[in-house]
Amino acid sequence: MHIDIITVVPELLESPFSHSIMKRAQEKGLLTVQSHNLRKWAINKHMQVDDYQFGGGAGMVLMPEPLANAIDELKKERTYDEIIYMTPDGPRFNQQAANQLSLKENLLIICGHYKGIDERIRQQYITMEISVGDYVLSGGELAAAIVVDAVGRLIPGVLNDETSALFDSFQDNLLAPPVYTRPADFRGSKVPEILTQGDPKKVEAWRYEQSLQRTKERRPDLLDE
Ligand code: ADE
Hey, which CATH number is domain 169-224, 3.90.1150.10, 3.20.20.70, 1.10.1270.20, 1.10.3210.10? Predict the structure, then answer.
């Protein structure tokens, strides 16, 4: 999978994909992520990419021209399955959306900044909008990093044990069960016996029961879906 990201703050996207699982995905050749500084398509020598909003009001808006030129240029290189705009007023991201995006070849992600992007770019270019939650970030970059991470780890071959993503929280609309590691007795608090007795069937049943109980207690809304 290849992901291009258009941003006015590429520095914010330097670290998130350079470590751990995202780093490994790229080293294995399963994922490439490339950030593009929108200022490369600035309208003048002052590197301007934003302007005041018509009608008045505080906050700058990313201008349509640099964005359109950036997207047009990148589209010459590859055909995108989705052109995604990160925005708090988009549909909320979840595991199902991550699963679906993990099947795509090429994604282009646009990060807003300040007040966002000119509405005409949303109408003419954007095929999908994503919010990562009901709160407002300073820009779309951290939200884009969340989406790339959640999607990237689902690409087949990225996780060492491919089945491990199947047991993540939210797959099957259930939260993950509790996990334990050594020591079996930590300051008097013991690991549930069933996990140390070596019966895989019993362990599986226990985990399912714990998942169900956790979901009922913490996220009953997931069980309604
Ligand atoms: N940009 C600013 N806030 C955002 C959010 N919650 N989700 C996606 N993009 C954003």
Answer: 1.10.1270.20
